[in-house]
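FW: tagging you since you asked about this chain on Friday. Here's the raw sequence from the shared folder, copied in full. Didn't touch anything.
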Amino acid sequence: MEELNERTGHKIKILPGVSFQIDVEKEGFPILTLRKNPIKSPIAETSLVITGEKDTTFLRKYTKMWDEFIEKDGTISSAYGYRWRHHFGRDQLGN
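HL: got it, structure written out here
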């Protein structure tokens, strides 16, 4: 299934039901390593994803990394967690 990302104009592939696992003991925590990134940033981002929120009030207390993607109303319209919790008529994280 393909979807057009309105923000970037790129087509993206959607793979409902596909998952992956990472052995953090063996492979480490999957974190961006191109720049210094305090641990509070990925923890705040993970919290936003798990809760399924689009509102960035909590996230912005810990990181400014997503500022360029925030809409005027303070939300991220393409937030992964929100999409996982609400798209396809089911809660993909809850199930």
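FW: The mean pLDDT is 84.
HL: agreed, and The longest strand covers residues 2-4.
FW: great, closing this out.
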